[in-house]
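We emphasize that the prediction below concerns an isolated chain of 288 residues; any contacts that depend on oligomerization or on bound cofactors are therefore not represented. The input was used exactly as deposited, without trimming of termini.
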Amino acid sequence: MNLNDWKQSGKYFDRDGLPVFYHLTESSDEVLLCLHGFPASSFDYHKIWDALAKEFAVLSFDLIGYGFSAKPVDFGYTTFEQVDVLAALVEHLEIKRVHILAHDYGNTITQELLARATENRLNFTIVSVCMLNGALFPETHRPILAQKLLISPIGFLFAKLLTDAKFKKSLASVFGTKTQPSAEELEDFVKLFKYNDGKRIAHKLIRYMTERAKYRTRWVGALETMRQPFRMINGLADQVSGAHLVERFREVVPQQTDIIELAGIGHFPHLEVPAIILEKFFEFHQKR
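Result of the prediction step, given as a token string:
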């Protein structure tokens, strides 16, 4: 499925006047929820979407500020607000149980969901969790230069001056050396990033980096007390959250031992080696 087909086949949910773009393969009270990361969108899952849909009702949506969703300048862009939007969408779709497949910032979203679950503040049940590459601990996050500049005081200016070529080069740097994105894939990333004048709020999207430090106790605690079936699938060559993240995870959450390590794979394993991700994901669900 190409990007245009993805857009045309999606739907919109109105959240307080803000259009939220989403895909749902079929109506069901139990779904597989696919959560994307920065600076991407739900389209990240297009290579494995059809295969997942054969086994699950699958839901994915673009977070506010991302992809084809609204990108208002006056939104807070906190993790808490993003989870509020997610909860509203799930309620609108009358979903009661979710399996989660998360990547990058989607992992942080999942950590907040788990924290709310322990507080009995969710309107649905989290049945299982599978995480791809993404920073879970602020002490192990290694942001690339573009992220550092976006979070800095000149972030708004950097985003404004960021060229398509530099954006593509920066993004490609977190992929594996032998699993680089194609020119078309990089162009799709750019289109989604710039859609609805997205560059003007890019510096606000990156605020989750500071939130991870501020709310570390809450979000890491959610991992430590998690009781749902869990698997991590990690591209070890990822400079942002690769082998070093796995090492720290084993130190902090030693009771979670189901970790699949992919040598030579970078930050986007579901785009780099989709067949392997499907194999390992279905294996995880078959053994539950």
